[in-house]
Amino acid sequence: MPEETLSHPYLLSSEDLNYDDILKIFKKAKYFMDNIQSVKKFDDLKGVTVGLAFFESSTRTKLSFELSAKRLSADVFSFQSSSSSLSKGESLLDTLRTIEAMEVQVFIVRHQNSGVPVFLQKNTSGIVINAGDGKHEHPTQALLDAFTLHRRFKKIDGLKVCIIGDILHSRVARSNVNTLKTLGAELAFCSPGTLLPRELNVWNVNIIDELDDAVDWADVVMVLRLQRERMDSGLIPSVKEFSKYYGITFKHFTKKPELVLLHPGPVNYGIELDYLLSSYPNVLIQTQVKHGVFIRMALLSLLAKNLGH
Predict the structure, then answer these.
(1) Which one of 1, 31, 35, 57 is separated from 248 by 20 to 30 angstroms, measured CA to CA?
(2) Is residue 7 situated within a structural domain?
(3) Percent of the chain with pLDDT over 90
(4) Nearest to 54 by CA among 110, 118, 116
């Protein structure tokens, strides 16, 4: 396999990436980070049209992909489902055909239903990138999380990472489990039993019941947003109760100042995380956002090689 390509010509799931793929993306992301000040704009996607098809609201991911594509000299086309013919009953496939007719070659798709990016990839000769589908996956979030840890610790093999919070509804957790395991991390969950996946043996991940024990064990805590919009009613007694037992506070860092914290954002401060921690040096939320742009540039650059432009 040539150095500059990935093992799949798309990214629908974190399982599409093997160990070598991830390291290629990291290497390319570092190249862009090291050269962005001098080059400003790269020509990796010159002549390529990238369509942002976000059927579900997003700030970080959408802006990050848009900036990434523009920094690579792509023509960027943004599709708003609320103002399209989808709201008049047009099918997803018809919409895809319409966008394809405009010669869009790369589709970055976020959808509230699991499996939509896979369905679209089966029906296009273009490249589909999953920017988050339902409760299924968010592979580029896992890549930028892993890249952040890789830069911080220099290696991920053997790193102890505890994912905390609403794991059941989290596409971020699913993608991170696959990506971090591929890179050799040791994983654990800390969550109310009602917010854990029903089939735990599929994950083969340790469960830590108490948050204090999780902090003691972990090198890194990955705190998830409480997915209230995806949550069935009655899964937790109350938000206050959840925060009391699963919210990270300053006392956790007083006890273990070297602990590193990640969060995919947006943060529900006062629920998952004490606001006092937002500027703490080991809380890497803004670093994740910064790295997200370079990881997505790297992914777009490597996948675009398949277009032969």
Answers:
(1) 57
(2) no
(3) 76
(4) 110
